[in-house]
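Progress report, Aim 2. The chain analyzed during this reporting quarter is listed below.
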Amino acid sequence: MLVRRVPPVPSPVLVEVFELLSQRGFQVESGIAEELVVRPDRLAVDHDLYVLKSHTELSLSLAAVLDTQGARMLNPYRCCAATQDKIVAARRLHAAGVPAPRSWVTGDFSLLRSLLDETPLIVKPHRGHRGAGITVVKNASELASLTPTDTPMLVQEYVEGSGEDLKLYVVGEQVFAVRKPFSESSFTVAGRPVPVTSELREIALACGRVLGLGLYGLDLVDSRDGPLVVDVNYFPGYKGVPDVAPLIADYIEDYANGSESLSLPELEALAEPVGPTH
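Predicted structure tokens for the chain:
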């Protein structure tokens, strides 16, 4: 279940993954929800495994229909839905002690004015992706200029970073890190691989446990108090990670064969705090 790419060219990593799985005897079919005509009242499970690579509302809705019929999905639908909802994800990350910025929600932006005495803020749609709709607010006039919206928004304290994106990519228990200069279009650029410290590895795997993910990525900021997780996304593009396609193919194969499984844990079952709490 793929997402539209801009420009509309196939993901090189996915092309290689599909080829590897086909060589191993799997029949691989792919589609983009927005480019199909589907009858949801007749949508039925007809594949052994669905791989959810899209973050769109339509893809999530179709995944939910399949999930109610018992479809096996990677990552599982409930885990993807919890990850995609930044409000839900913020609660789960905090419960597990994952270091992350403080966050708030409100339907009235003017109520945030007192917070600006403590910290600048960053406002983002609760189901946003690739930085769309994000606004940094540093003073009262910028706060007053925010347009009221019916879309739930997550408000986080704005943490000044190093000017570089730090991204962690995870395949099962294997963690990779890349850095690249920050820009609005940096998600289209491959980063340079960097070593994964024990602290970063622990943070990455804790995010996977708390959100029930096996193929996922994290965005982090280097703060004065250490790395902070500012976003988690399921099945990212793994840009800049060398030779990752065989690892992804192995994980999908293991999941299809039942050697791997994932589920969304209850809050009471979450891991002990990871690193410093905020």
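The longest helix spans residues 198-211. The radius of gyration is 19 Å. These observations will guide the mutagenesis work planned for the next reporting period.
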